Amino acid sequence: MLLKKERLNDILTDMAKQARVYVPVSPDANDGGGVGKSGKAKMTRFELYSPGTAPNFDLVNTTMPPKDMLFPQTQKMYRYGFDTEGNAYIDIIHDSDEVVIFGMRSCDARSIECMDDVFLSMGYDDEFYKQRREKLATVAIGCASVAETCFCDSMGLDPNAAPGADVQLSPGVDGQSYVVVAQSEKGQALVASWQPYLEDSTAETTQVSCALKVNGDGLKDKLEQMFDHPIWEQLSKKCLTCGTCTYVCPTCHCFDISQENKMKDGERFRCWDSCMFSAYSEMAGNHNPRPTKMPRVRQRFMHKLCFFEDRYGKTLCVGCGRCVEKCPVALDITMLIDDIQAADLSKAEEVA
């Protein structure tokens, strides 16, 4: 099936009547041309669609990933307190709306698979994530171009295809159409609802690859021997532990739980946290197993490239390049991978 780009807004408007639809949006061109007071470009993100919204499906990637739709930056979990008769109560807070993320790239589609591993496997379901996941449908668009920081195909992904998405749209070489393929039952239902806007034809599609390449072969096995390698001390000297990489990363999922109390009532909520912050690993009695920068930096990259794959069978880095682009000191994970592959294992200290 073929979808002309000129019919996109018709489809989005129809879907928005039944669900919350999120699309990639650039800052308002009338608001300084998308440039802030600092002279730097404002962040791009997925925003709620409504008639009049101008999606930008030509963005290679948004600054902020769409994980907020599944794992909100701040999420109320439940309310508690005493009712007027003095009885204690706890009310779980759930989001009941259907949601469609329209226009994600292959890297973000894979990131949802990683989040599913964390929150919905190993014998435990996170009820807050699960409820949102069951109501989510995803529409991926293959990349017509790539950024210089993209390296997803080195991490085992294909920028032209997202098999984990419910619907795949592949850009036609004419630049004016998408080839539409439903990849799940949810996707079949979506595509069926689009029928008035689709053409029963096909087209040649754009195929791209990333210019930035890294060698991930045997990376996990080598890292298992490098826990005490001096590479981590050298790397950590550069890091500011600002947490920027973890907040723009589509697969980072650390969170903290807190509460607000007012008189006899209160709310418990969770919010994004970062393993790069010193307080993240602090325990009762002020003990901290990662008291300095080096073990925190090591933990982040070992988790991305080694520990997660050991547990779930896939790397936690999806090659989106957001951390490469946004790190204020250019601490580049692709350069680190190159350094790891070139590292001399004889310099690693024996683990006691």
Please write the string of helix (H) and strand (E) elements: EHEEEEEHHEEEHEHHHEEHHH
Kindly state the mean pLDDT as a whole number? 92
C-alpha end-to-end distance: 60 Å
Report the total helices: 10
How would the global form be characterised? globular
Count of beta strands = 12
What number of structural domains do the residues give? 1
User: Biggest sheet: strands, sense, closure?
Assistant: 8 strands, mixed
Could you list the spans in which at least 5 consecutive residues all have pLDDT below 50?
29-39
Strand content range: 15-25%
- Estimated helix fraction: 25-40%
The side-by-side strand order for the widest beta sheet comes to: 3-2-6-7-8-9-1-10
Q: What is the radius of gyration? A: 22 Å
Q: Briefly note the structural class of the backbone.
A: alpha+beta
